[in-house]
Amino acid sequence: MKIAILTQPLGKNYGGMIQAFALQKVLKKMGHEVVTIDRQAADRGMVHDSLRLMYRGMKKITGKRKAPVNIERYYPLIFKNSHSFIDNNINLTERICSTQNLKKHFLNNSYDAVVVGSDQTWRPKYSPDIYNFYLDFMDGENVKRVAYASSFGVDNWEYSAEETRKCAELAQKFNAISVRETSGIELCDRHLGVKSECVLDPTLLLEKEDYLELIGDRYNKEAGEGVFTYWLDGSDEKRAVSEQLATHLNTYTYQCQAKLGLSSSASSKLEDYMMPPVEDWLASFANAEFVLTDSFHGMVFSIIFGKPFFVIINKKRGAARFNSLLGRLGLDMCSLESTNELFKLAISKDFDFITAIEKLESLKEFSKLFLIESLNENNIVGISVNQ
After folding, report:
1. pLDDT digits (tens, 9 = 90+) for 218-247
2. pTM above 0.70, yes or no
């Protein structure tokens, strides 16, 4: 079967890239021909760009900005490692920045199915066009529609009344729908009028060995050394507790991410904004003794590599995705809402992943079955896989 995957724009986020890689690999292992649609946000236009540059220029003159005024000009350098990973590991279409061009692409390419997911594809605030992720551009086309581990990111409804009406109409045309969080089942039922299943993030469908193959000789030893910290929202408090934990474990802390995010303008050095290679990021989990993170996929790879970890949940980014997975695996004790109790917990808990891995294997089997059954040629609209 020839399958197109539609997911969030790739290149600026480790988790987004690695879940896209994983879903492609899983579907290819099932014998399918797979390509990921390179859906990117459209440019905002010359007026917006001019005003943005003027604003940044004024901040530069007043000494409030150190970063280049037109930092977007240097994106090919800043994201060269990300683009290299995508080019080498993800089969991608041409860049598509509009609904019209999506329609053209699907008219010119014969797909048997489209899989929407994973990641927060159904969260409007993160979407280039939320209707595209409900396949509005495919009206009338005889192509199987499947949502795999699509995420709302939160457990409350963020859609407007018009978005709800239109997305519900489109969702009811899907052959099968699955979501990444248990809370997503109720959101689908209540607001979209569709039944859904809860499945694993695609990164969890692969084996540890699949990632070790990517890492190659970057992998040091099974026991692990150091406290790896991966913060999407860093703070002095998080850094301090990381150092406390490392001191207690008689080891050190280390990071593998850009020193500064693109929203920062605190440095004139382009290298401070550059993302290290995806393979280095993965190796940082594999080689760690302990992991501290506030990232969903940071949590996922701690689990995959069997590393003791704590995840500090940022509710603004969405707590549902953390709580859902940890709850299903019986790892709720790894979730914290602040750093206040982290150090005390870290030195008093033993981390036993045996039960969690057993639960994970069962969920993995169910999630793969969902994909197999959903892409079955005899599948009809509205079918669901019963656990």
Report:
1. 998 767 899 999 999 988 989 988 998 899
2. yes
Shared domain for 200 and 223, answered yes or no, is no
- Tokens 């539609």 identify what position? 6
Specify the amino acid at residue 135: L
Residue 142 structural domain: 2-204+362-374
Span 69-86, pLDDT tens digits? 999 999 999 999 999 999
- Number of structural domains found in the chain: 2
* Cα distance between residue 199 and residue 185, in whole Å: 10
What is the pLDDT at residue 345? 59
DSSP string computed for 224-241 = --SEEEE-SS--HHHHHH
Locus of tokens 């699949």? 210
SS3 content of the chain, % helix, strand, coil (to 5): 50, 15, 40
Length of the chain: 387
In the sheet where 290-293 sits, what is the strand order? Answer: 253-254, 227-230, 290-293, 309-312, 335-336
Radius of gyration of the chain (CA): 21
Rounded to 5 degrees, φ, ψ at 178 are: -130, 150
Do residues 164 and 40 share a domain?
A: yes
